[in-house]
Amino acid sequence: MDNNTILLIKNLSFSYPGGRKIFKELNFSLKRGDKIGLVGANGSGKTTLFYLIMGLLKTDRGEIYIFNKRRVQERDFFEVRQKIGLMFQDSDDQLFCPTVEEDIAFGPLNLGKSRQEVDQIVEETCQSLGISNLRKRITYKLSGGEKRLISFATLVAMRPQCLLLDEPTAGLDEETTYRLLEYLRNRFDTYIIVSHDQAFLNQTIKETYYLKDGNIFKI
Amino acid sequence: MHLEEFAEGDSFFHKLDPRIKFLTITPSVCIIAIMKSIETSLIALLLCFVSVAFAKISFKKLFLRLLSVNLFILLLWIFLPFSFTGEAIFDVGPYSATKEGIYKASLITLKSNAIVIITITFLGTSQIFSLAHALIDLKVPKKLVLLFFFFYRYIAVIHDEYIRMKKALLIRNFKPSSNLHTYKTLAYSIGMLIIKSFDRSQRIYNAMLCRGFKNNFPIMSHFQIRSSDITFGIIILLIVSLLIVFDYG
Lengths: 219, 249
Prior knowledge:
The structure holds two protein chains of two kinds.
Chain A: E1 5-15, E2 21-31, E3 35-40, H1 46-54, E4 61-66, E5 69-70, H2 77-83, E6 84-87, H3 91-94, H4 100-110, H5 115-129, H6 144-156, E7 162-166, H7 174-187, E8 191-194, H8 198-204, E9 207-212, E10 215-218
Helix pairs in contact in A: 4-5, 4-6
Chain B: H1 12-15, H2 18-34, H3 38-55, H4 59-79, E1 88-92, E2 95-98, H5 99-123, H6 128-137, H7 142-171, H8 180-210, H9 227-248
Antiparallel strand pairs in B: 1-2
Helix pairs in contact in B: 2-5, 2-9, 3-5, 3-9, 4-5, 6-7, 7-8
């Protein structure tokens, strides 16, 4: 393991309580600069893998190392959640503040930034994603695509080093997809994308991994 | 369901510092609750209607909310007049309604309406985040504030799930009638509603954790107390003190 390794998973096993085994002795690693597309059948465990990395689910067996530290307990994951941004499959789960700007500010404020800094971050994030016109809007009254874009904004406002995106383009029109694409290409060098949108994957990723029967394979 | 429908607006009440709102509504509600005379209760109710005008709330929406409160009070009117001893006014069978009983029921009606109205004009005109933040600022225990916040948050979540499920039933042409199929479907729906709401609230909580939530409530624009807030506070406290004097005088 060296300093370029962001994520290292060793012999990971996981099953939902009373459910079937999702992962059996899975091994995986992510290095700085890796741009990975993750594909697999419905229910093959793509979202589950993201949840395990973020510490939202606990492993049955196996070890997860993130930034060269083994992560086991809840507080081990505080640092992980600051540095890795997860975009949920359903934007309704991600947005919970009344207004767009408050939602974007929620993460940076939790990181203990001052109000001026947060204001600046919100401003910059809105500008760079072209959503300044949505700033004062009420989150649950936005359209599906707008919600998706705001969810993405709430992530990047935390300045993560790595992104985990779960179906980022679902429900986005061509122009918005392009905006997201450009942003990803220009500002992030490390990410894992789960998507069924082959065209989007072709333009963003370098390698593809495939989840099947509880394990992960490189294609 | 739009729980914060009164919070959208630009009236005097919407601009008030939420901390002042809490500091004034708490004594006001307590005083109204312990009032003894019907005259002062009536004055309190009228003053509450004055606050509605200041908050620029739609009377129609307000009355719809009051309607549900008064349905409960209606139940009191069935029992209270008959459960006090005193001067009988009329009889129903072996029971007689007393003047004291009717007096008590009117008092409760006036007071509960007054309390509900000022709660709406004072607290309903602020966003839930501001209220939670104001409570923390006023040194209310954080656990209580969190409880209040999530309770509120999840009512909306459960209602969202309910709406989705209702749509799912409707597009498949479900027509409730009085047969086993209907009861079974309704039972399934309620069961699913509880499970789905629980899951969904868990996912929202996860989203909060992913963004570094550690049981604190950050807020964008911090409150700044203005002289109008202080003037308002003093006026309300004066009115409240006058009401006590009248009530006991």
